[in-house]
Amino acid sequence: MEPTLKDDIYLIGNFKRKINLEIIAGPFGQSAKMIVEIDGKPAIPGEPEHIGNFPQTSLGLDTKIHRKVVSIIATITDLSKDTNYTSLELIFTGGLTTKTYSLNKIVDEEGQSADYICFIEFFDPNRKS
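Now predict its structure.
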């Protein structure tokens, strides 16, 4: 099964605000394993792999993360007997607006997994470099 891909930019400003990310791995009946990195380093220091939902975490100040990329590689396993639906929701706050990405995939049967790969670049449209 092909992974679900997301590649986008998240607009930030120059306000000295924290840019935050929260990841919700589907409704009840799904398990999640993910790697969340910003510029190749774990978003939560010392935690290269995260199990379950990713709590709201500061990725840095908007003044420091212009042109940096957060990468998310997640595997969501469907454990529900009722549905074969998997989903991943990324919630970014602190930028010019709050941005939510809702991704989903249907697997063929209970116990199967779906992979999600996301790259989000932080971009301040008023900065020259």
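The mean pLDDT is 95.
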